[in-house]
Design brief:
With about 350 residues, the protein is an alpha/beta fold. It has 12 helices and 13 strands.
Length: about 350
């Protein structure tokens, strides 16, 4: 049975395969897979997003994101949802934004909301939605455990990434990498300090979103630590990101909050690149210490681990990614959930 699935992106981010954010990358992978399988995929996202399915665009916000911006953009999303329901017979809505509870559709159509971020970042109205036929999904067992008593009937759909069938590259360069949104919770100042202490070049790649907090973080914590050997290179996506990961010595993930998952860590391992990370949240679940990288608890430990990654088996990193972090497995799980919800049943919470 062909399904009609409406994916609703976080409204302040552009969706597509080359998006910086993990939620947007997951949305793009699901959208593309639905189209390939003959389903109707509709995506509500910022104008300019790249989709394989039908894009129902909302206008992009320009300028600082404040309460007025949220109010305006949420109304645009509600209007887009109403338009979509008027035009198509929708089986399931799939929400990806941290603010999804502000624009849930009217009662009737089944809705799945994937919690991509730490659970304490969501309002209680999101974690206990009163709307009937609304189901939550976590992206890791670590994240679901963080819900405590609220975890009843919450699904787990582990994230996954595209797996390269090639062996690890022998052409490695001495630089370490840090990739992702440039914001305080990512702790990139610790990566820069560790690289300097190790005498290792570092490339920091990512996007600075137009939030005042994010911009102050870059100006106060990141910019003063940059020099000719530790550089900020802006967003790197798609093939350019994959080439960078295949060339790098290691990936540094110095998050200071409990990560719910880490697509970039999975992508690094799929490229044969070890990961050095603080054991925050699901990172301890993803990285096998001493095999696919190192779990460290301080900047000096991170500096030491950077130098030790040269001793790790890069093909073992790829083998782990194939066995545990397959994008195909993630998509199959989502489609199974969509089918169950569309039929009026309940998806298996395991």
């Amino acid at each position: 049975m062909a399904l009609t699935v409406v994916s609703v992106a976080y409204p302040f981010a552009t969706a597509g395969p080359d998006a910086v954010g993990g939620a947007e990358q997951v949305l793009a992978a699901v959208d593309s897979a639905l189209v390939r399988a003959g389903h109707r995929s509709i995506v509500i996202a910022q104008d300019g997003s790249r989709t394989d399915g039908t894009l129902v665009p909302i206008p992009p916000h320009k300028g600082i994101v404040d309460s007025a911006a949220y109010s305006s953009i949420h109304q645009h999303v509600r209007n887009a949802i109403a338009h979509t329901l008027d035009r198509w017979p929708v089986d399931v809505f799939h929400f990806h934004g941290v603010d999804f509870d502000a624009y849930l559709p009217p009662d009737g159509t089944a809705a799945l909301a994937t919690l991509h971020l730490p659970v304490d970042w969501y309002r209680q109205t999101a974690l206990r939605p009163a709307r009937p036929r609304t189901v939550l999904a976590c992206v890791s067992e670590t994240q679901r455990r963080a819900l405590g008593a609220r975890a009843d009937n919450v699904l787990v759909v582990p994230n996954g990434v595209a797996i390269d069938e090639r062996r690890a590259s022998d052409r490695r360069e001495p630089f370490a990498l840090a990739l992702g949104r440039v914001c305080p919770e990512k702790g990139y100042e610790h990566a820069l300090d560790a690289a300097r202490l190790a005498g290792c070049p570092l490339l920091l790649a990512g996007r600075i979103f137009p939030y005042d907090l994010h911009q102050r973080y870059f100006n106060e914590k990141i910019a003063p630590r940059l020099d000719e050997n530790r550089r900020f290179i802006g967003p790197v996506v798609g093939d350019a990101k994959r080439r960078l990961l295949r060339r790098g010595r290691c990936l540094l993930v110095p998050s200071v909050v409990a990560e719910t998952s880490s697509l970039v860590a999975m992508e690094a391992l799929a490229a044969g690149t070890p990961v050095v990370a603080f054991p925050r949240g699901a990172l301890a679940e993803l990285i096998e210490d001493g095999v696919t990288g190192f779990l460290v608890r301080s900047v000096p430990e991170m500096a030491d681990a950077i130098l030790r990654t040269d001793c790790l088996d890069r093909d073992a990193c790829i083998a782990t990614a194939r066995a545990r972090f397959s994008e195909t497995r993630m998509i199959d799980r989502y489609v199974s959930v969509f089918r169950a919800l569309a039929s009026g049943g309940s998806a298996d919470a395991s």
